[in-house]
Design a protein that fits this description.
This is Exonuclease. This protein is an alpha/beta fold. It has helices at residues 3-29, 36-49, 54-68, 77-87, 95-112, 122-135, 142-151, 156-166, 173-190, 194-203, 211-219, 223-233, 235-247, 251-260, 268-284, 288-294, 299-311, 315-325, 337-342, 362-372, 413-419, 421-432, 444-454, 470-474, 480-489, 509-531, 549-555, 558-561, and strands at 355-359, 377-384, 397-403, 407-412, 438-441, 464-469, 562-565. A hairpin with a 3-residue loop joins strand 3 (397-403) and strand 4 (407-412).
């Protein structure tokens, strides 16, 4: 084919697409004389002629269908949609997507309608469509069945009416319709379509299914369907559900069910266990302030929170809570020895750190930078006050820790950036941009992002030289830096103070030690691996066991991970 012929064919194809779209727009502008089959055909042509992604085209057509349903489809928009759904299976692969499209468009139209939009026969047509789908005359999955019932508000009386017309001499139409729905529900349960089965029974207000149905859903871990069914059935079934959740130790689900249905007085013990479990989870994440707020001044829960703080070794939190709530006697409680052994944490004095120096003015900053510039390797870390309000802006980075092997400087970034921003920028540039000082961090990409967002006016946080993120070398699957410290140095880090208030001044001594430890431990991990990077010297012609092989490999992986930021 020549170039001219090819260009002509493309031009003709564009003309055809434009013609199809013009016909569609013309037809959609007035549906008075457009049959459901023609409407669906034109809808398909619109869909296949576009070049956009499927989801974008779907949403665009959804809006189009919503608008054209205003344009006098006969005998009314709801009836027109039922007729479309009846013939839609002949369009094969487009059936499922288009059924959701036109139903959702009609649902939106009906929500905004202020007057009835249709003839009374629409319920009969929808009931007939429901029966045709169930018996297999029209091919749709159970999700469309539920949507048809809901959007057209098909009632049991509508089903009865159609069944009577089909089989006029079949006895009580009410019993036949109910039995028909129950049989279909059994079929849905066997195919494990529990949510659809529950929705069907709820829609027709059928309550014959009892405890066995609920237990079946719980055994198959269909908890959302079980909750929906129990809520529909009432308090006895909700109580059974709570008991089953408690037996499975699903305390969060039990708590939600109790609270949502005002069952606190019926399950005081379970409710209290749920609250304690919630506090423990928050304490393990270091969210002590949130945990305290969740107690709602309940003395029993506050005492439990104090015990959790004691168990975690967070004694300043113990003191704080005891003083705030006038608690007595907690120093007589001893943490179990097994717990104490399990919670063996690394201490700052074990790393032979000489001093922690707080830096919040020019002279201290200049001294710190002078010391750090004489180091070949330093550890970096940052802390900021957590923000527990969903969707809110993160707080500014409060402090930056810079550690040598014997000394840790903690810079009050909030105060220094406010008092002497130029000096702070110049001093940190000398460290962070230096190609002769190796800077160690852990998951430091997060800190880089937060520093840039907090202090965008400072150029020192826009570029980093000789930065090594230890997380990229070890990729410790569990426990983060704490787990890595336990693996390399034999003891984990106590992270209970991670989410404390880093904007309070002065910081508590334990906060300072926590912050210092997070930075200086990086140097000791690095030094440990470097010292064990060579196999031990042989004795009497035999080499020592290769216990340091991992360290040997890891040490020579450092170079490939040392980087500058931003890249390129």
């Amino acid at each position: 084919m020549g170039l001219e012929e090819n260009a002509s064919e493309i031009h003709n194809k564009k003309d055809q697409d434009r013609q199809i779209w013009t016909i569609c727009l013309h037809s959609f502008s007035d549906l008075t004389s457009v049959s459901p089959v023609v409407f669906l055909y034109l809808l398909k042509e619109c869909y296949i002629s576009g070049t956009l992604k499927a989801m974008i085209k779907f949403r665009a057509l959804q809006q189009v269908v919503y608008l054209v349903l205003h344009n006098n489809p006969q005998p009314g928009p709801a009836t027109f949609v039922v007729q479309c759904l009846t013939v839609l299976p002949i369009f094969g692969a487009y059936c499922e997507g288009f059924s959701h499209l036109i139903i959702s468009s009609l649902r939106r139209l009906l929500k905004r309608a202020t007057t009835p939009l249709d003839s009374f026969e629409v319920n009969d047509l929808a009931a007939q469509l429901f029966l045709d789908i169930v018996v297999g005359h029209v091919n749709y999955d159970e999700r469309i069945v539920v949507k048809v019932l809901e959007v057209f508000d098909v009632k049991l009386t509508d089903i009865e009416k159609i069944m009577c017309q089909l089989k006029p001499n079949n006895g009580s139409s009410s019993d036949i319709a109910t039995e028909f729905i129950e049989q279909y529900t059994i079929k849905l349960v066997k195919s494990q379509s529990y949510m659809e089965a529950v929705t069907l029974l709820e829609h027709f207000n059928i309550r014959q299914c009892g405890q066995s149905f609920l237990l079946n859903m719980i055994d198959n871990k269909q908890f959302k369907a079980a909750e929906k069914w129990a809520t529909f059935m009432g308090k006895p079934m909700l109580s059974l559900l709570v008991h089953k959740y408690a037996d499975r130790n699903m305390l969060k689900s039990a708590y939600d069910t109790i609270k949502k249905n005002n069952l606190q007085q019926d399950f005081p013990d379970v409710y209290h266990r749920c609250k304690e479990s919630s506090l423990k989870m928050l304490a393990e994440k270091g969210c002590w302030d949130v945990a305290e707020a969740k107690t709602h001044n309940n003395r029993q829960l506050i005492e439990y929170l104090v015990y959790l703080a004691m168990e975690a070794g967070y004694m300043e939190k113990v003191d704080e809570l005891r003083e705030r709530y006038s608690l007595k006697g907690f120093y007589d409680i001893k943490v179990p020895e097994s717990t104490a052994q399990h919670n063996r944490y690394l201490r700052l004095d074990e790393l032979d750190v000489g001093d922690i120096i707080w830096v919040d003015e020019v002279d201290g900053l200049c001294y710190a930078i002078s010391h750090i510039e004489g180091c070949k390797v330093v550890g970096l870390d940052c802390e900021w006050k957590p923000n527990f309000v969903k969707g809110s802006k993160p707080n500014k980075v409060s402090i930056m820790q810079i550690a040598s092997d014997k000394m840790v400087f903690i810079l009050d970034l909030i105060k220094l950036s406010g008092d002497v921003p130029e000096v702070l920028n110049d001093c940190l540039t000398r460290i962070l941009h230096s190609p002769s000082i190796l800077k160690l961090g852990y998951n430091f990409q997060c800190d880089i992002k937060q520093l840039a967002a907090s202090y965008g006016e400072l150029n020192c946080f826009k570029h980093y030289e000789m930065l090594l993120d230890i997380q990229n070398v070890f990729k410790e699957p569990e426990g983060g830096l704490s787990g890595l410290a336990k693996k390399i140095l034999g003891a984990a880090l106590n992270k209970t103070r991670r989410n404390s208030n880093w904007e309070q001044r002065p910081l508590h001594r334990n906060q300072l030690e926590y912050a210092a430890l997070d930075a200086v431990v990086l140097i000791h991990i690095f030094s440990h691996v470097r010292c064990h990077s060579q196999p031990a010297a042989s004795t009497e012609g035999h080499s020592q066991p290769a216990a340091s092989t991992e360290g040997y490999v890891k040490y020579y992986e450092w170079k490939s991970h040392i980087a500058s930021f931003p890249h390129g």
